[in-house]
Amino acid sequence: MSNSFYHERYCLTKKQEEIIKPLLPAPKSTGRPGLNPLIVFNAILWILSSGAAWRDLPPQFGNWNSIYHKFRKWCADDVFEKILQALVANTEKYLLVEIDSTFCKVHQHAAGARKKHGNQAIGVSRGGKTTKIHALVTENFQLIGLLLTGGQVHDSQCAIELLRKVNLDGKTVLGDKAFCSAHIRDFIQEQGGTVCIPDKAHSRAISLFNLYEHWF
């Protein structure tokens, strides 16, 4: 299987590169020539998409250790968050914001990083060590917000923090029963959004009980 197959499957297309290139940090203008930001970005995509170890990065991308350290620096500098926000700003007008989460199993050797590297977003739940991915997407499934927590964190605990990342004015927010809470509903409405979240069974029972007391 040729190396070009990997590049075509996991890396950016030419059109995507034209969009991403202006958003990447500029290479150094002094000293030793820096790494090409586009090559670094494609190398990171290859690692994240393939699930391979950094040492298995194809040599066409360059030295794996140099690219790994560049990846760590970009994470510390919030480069990926800034890219996402810039892409969201250029997103076509959307009317629907969908909120949900999923979780992924953490490799047994993933935990244990030094505290200086920050929160690893690894928690312990019934499934063992897991990371939960909280996301916002539009009706066209375009990613507009992302948040990582430990797997034990309930969806409702970080919903407002995630929703703050986008402008909800005039938007309909769609979610499942996990987001059925008064403070989430109030926040959405205060921001000018419309709530489309089903009530939990006990919430309906409480509402009917309050209505009964009001009448009688």
Note down, in words, how this protein is organized.
The chain has 216 residues and is α/β, with parallel strands linked by helices. The chain folds into two domains: 3-84, no CATH class; 91-209, Nucleotidyltransferase, domain 5 (2-Layer Sandwich), CATH 3.30.420. Helices cover 38% and strands 18% of the residues. It has eight helices and six strands. Strands 1, 2, 3, 4, 5 and 6 form a six-stranded mixed beta sheet that branches. α3 crosses α4 (64-76). The longest helix is centred in the last third of the chain and has 15 residues, at 201-215.
What does the overall shape look like? globular
Mean pLDDT: 82
Domain count: 2
Name of the level-1 CATH class of the largest domain:
Alpha Beta
Strand content: 15-25%
Q: Percentage of helical residues?
A: 25-40%
Oligomeric assembly: single chain
SS-based class:
alpha/beta
Biggest beta sheet attributes? 6 strands, mixed
Poorly predicted segments = 205-216
Task: Give a short overview.
With 216 residues, the chain is an alpha/beta fold. It has helices spanning 3-10, 14-20, 37-50, 64-76, 79-89, 159-163, 182-190, 201-215; strands at residues 96-105, 123-125, 128-138, 143-150, 172-174, 194-196. Helices cover 38% and strands 18% of the residues.
Label this structure with key terms.
2 domains; 8 helices; 6 strands; alpha/beta; 216 residues; Nucleotidyltransferase, domain 5; 18% strand; 38% helix
